[in-house]
């Protein structure tokens, strides 16, 4: 559908190559779109989330009529055109006030999405505390056992991690750890993970699902006696209370394709990753050592080097040979010993 | 000798930085994430929500920071750089895995011979001028021979030997050879990807189009030996006498298509034309007012036309 652009100069060719798929991916760029009606709360929420997501955020200035749960084609078009793979749509209707839809794409097609309703929002401006530098990677903290068990919360955790922290990096500057995004769930004793009798009664339980609290704090590392500093948190940043609404889980085929990992390279194997390969180990020097197992050897049938000079001489005549044999024997014995 | 005091004081030092929890925290240093799987304590939650959240967060982050400071570090001007391990949680990719490209002819040869790839620097040392000059590009050393004002010419050279032209021709031929080799590599990669039959079909299709792309649409051109006869589109004509029912159906179908029902056009928006972006076309023609306004205008004009209008 999107016309394929043919590069006309080296710069456009480089830009096109930067958009191609890579083994280790870059951060997901997020597009912030407003629907036909967004209230003041939603405007504030989207502005703050964009501040946290900078510089990998694109904000659409116009309002768009888009209903992703019915028709995801606009999302796919925007994802392809802007080379972005996450969406944050804000839409406030009478039935669903202050609704925020978080969506992810794979291969320019919609992967999964979740609608969250903003119940309470405290903006960054209301905390007169120092803020973190934009562009720094946040630390994330998830506090509840439901993030591992309940499928909806697993999806929410995956979406939030992908949104804030999805990039794989190999080293981080330790003094640069400045802020934390903490996500917790309210207690709900009446919640069961999956009722086997009723089966999956999904959206009927939407009201029963506990709320999610998102808190952002700045981190202060105080010197303690040891190498590890003591952590002190100060409130900063947006405080959000969200409730779960509709969602769309990923198509299992697409999810499987999206979760494919590249084959492990030699360096990773040496680091000890991947399937535990037998007979391979990394010693203290950091070298990869292997063990070779060979079958038991029969030393009698050992093939050694042939030394022609050491070979026993052939017998010549009978007469002289007897004497010479007797003489020869000790000589031969001597040679053999040598 | 009583070392218990020393041990106790040593342990006390670590007290402020260790965190004790019932279930161990799941720390993913690769993504700088910590998950605390202890169930929420309802009483402290209800009494003071913010404080409880902050305390749990502090504990979790303390554990994460302890893990991060335990990683191997490298010094850097901004502070210690911790080498992060690959992350444990798996997140879905945004684009599918890239397909491995087949190696080019040179890459295969280099792999077989064991030649390492060496990237050459753009600057090269010029002994005469005693400075670093570009190897290629602006004021590049590769154009030195062409830009010289004096040339040494061999004694047995022909009279009209132009050293500048010779140097320029050599450079352009090298560039042309490189481009040709790149095209060949590209073609080889493509053929490796697609099969032989696909290529054959492609070639036949292109040939058919070229035969039609003449002034007479391929009708009065001489045919070469070995070329296949071009297949044309067969027109289907209805019989002159059809039943009344069939005629009625046909006329009604035509009428319904002509109707211009607004609702139906909106429903058919999904199955659009690939060559035409309907949404953009409507926006352009209606000057941003939309399809409904266009339909309204068309009806108004139609009505006026029927009455006689400006005439």
TrEMBL record, chain A:
GO terms for molecular function: rRNA binding. One of its GO terms (biological process) is maturation of LSU-rRNA from tricistronic rRNA transcript (SSU-rRNA, 5.8S rRNA, LSU-rRNA). InterPro entries: Brix (IPR007109), Rpf2 (IPR039770). Residues 28-253 form the Brix domain. Transmembrane segments: none annotated. The keyword Nucleus applies. It holds the Pfam family Brix. It is found in: Nucleus, Nucleolus. It comes from the Eukaryota. The keyword Membrane does not apply. One of its GO terms (cellular component) is nucleolus. Residues 315-328 have a biased composition (Acidic residues). PROSITE patterns: BRIX (PS50833). Residues 293-338 are annotated as: Disordered. Keywords: Nucleus. Belongs to the RPF2 family. This is Ribosome production factor 2 homolog. It comes from Suillus discolor.
From TrEMBL, chain B:
It comes from the Eukaryota. Residues 152-180, 195-205 have a biased composition (Basic and acidic residues). Residues 75-103 have a biased composition (Pro residues). Residues 301-311 have a biased composition (Basic residues). One of its GO terms (cellular component) is nucleus. It is found in: Nucleus. Residues 75-105, 152-223, 288-311 are annotated as: Disordered. Residues 181-193, 207-216 have a biased composition (Polar residues). GO terms for biological process: ribosome biogenesis. Belongs to the RRS1 family. Involved in ribosomal large subunit assembly. This is Ribosome biogenesis regulatory protein. It comes from Suillus discolor.
